[in-house]
Fold Sodium/proline symporter.
Amino acid sequence: MQTGTLITLALYFVLMIGVGLFAWRKSTDTSEGYLLAGRNLPPAVAALSAGASDMSGWLLLGLPGALYASGLVEAWIGIGLFAGAVVNWIVVAPRLRQQTEELGNALTIPEFLANRFPDKAFALRVVSAIVIVAFFTVYTAAGLVGGGKLFETAFAGLLPNIALSDYMLGIWITALVVLAYTMVGGFLAVSLTDFVQGCIMVVALVLMPLVVMFGSGGEAGGSIADVAASQPGFLSLTEGLTLLGFISAVTWGLGYFGQPHIIVRFMAISTIEQVKTARNIGLTWMGVALIGAIGIGITGRAYAERKGILFEDPETIFIVLSELLFHPLITGFLLAALLAAIMSTISSQLLVSSSSLTEDFYRLFLRQQASERERVNVGRICVAIVALAAIAIAADPDSQVLGLVSNAWAGFGAAFGPLIILALTWDKMTGAGAVAGLVTGAAVVAIWIAGGLNASFMGGQYLYEIVPGFIAAWLAIVIVSKATGTARPARG
């Protein structure tokens, strides 16, 4: 690997750790500062932080790889996600910002639910914390798999005397850098690094397909027509698309309402009035990013066909094109963009998992009167514990980024999605209904995955597990709430 690329990446790592040290001096004296940056994020930082923590390594690995392999039909996932994000910003963001502050200044989603339904506070905090930690450990592992694939593909033999495979070396380097700024700087560090990472990501996502299409040596423009001719339907949004396949793709958008690492950004925006500004910035960023990722998959396939390049793992297309088409310094920037996508999500997930372990386990069961400093330090320890568990899961080099992300995304979307929407908008929801929805959503997703129904359902067709999980959770909340009476009115 050429020196220029390594220098660029080294500078990127230094920048991330520097931001962590800055945040450490600004907002880690109290648990509110460490977990929510004092509810004082500017709208641009909140918007790009939500976007960057959402669009993990799957945006530069999983989605382009799926489009490379199957064609434009895979774009329905991105379309569904964008639609879900629009509704999330309009329905959930302003209400969650307002109600979490009004209801006991809740710092975590489990704490908000407990304050919203005090009769079931204990059950809601414990069950929701278990779901968060379990699914986020898997989700974090997906990000580490992306880091492993990056180093395995782009930095093979970087440290030949290390008794680790290139894949595991990548996992450990990614994890240690994220731990450095997350443990030190907390939510403010994560949000500020997300902002920087979001800017890097969107530049890379615009730059890559343009260079592949029109840059020197790209030659992909005419090749797209060749691919379309040799593989009919490659550029079609409907080729081979079944009804269940369409539902499975677009319903990825349902997951947004239940992603704690995304919606916690809404809680931290400085004022309710600035939610609209953050929404406009966030949705613009997301639209450009998704179009860029789709473009990488399509133009990358055309370039590979023209050059006779064979990809054993389509999820590495962004990495390989970065090395083939760009100067080493630019390659370093592009690989930093991939690491940005990976690290922004991992850091957010680690912090949310840590907050649940600290606020909903440690304080609840061990030290109810823990001081602010003690809670911050326990949070740092919990970040490291979750990271180690995720490293163990990610150790399998055959893991697929998109597969791990889809499972975790469905788990959160089904468990928390209906629960959050109805808690914010339905005045007849009860604590018993909340518990029923939370347990039902998580259980149905787990059973669907364990039974292989996400791979073979109704004659072998694929049905994404979020669909039955979301529906079952919504019904459970409504039925149990009506059977157990009325609750305090929701506001907003």
Observations:
- The chain has 18 helices and no strands.
- The domain at 3-402 is CATH 1.20.1730.10 (Sodium/glucose cotransporter).
- Residues 166-214 form the longest helix (49 residues).
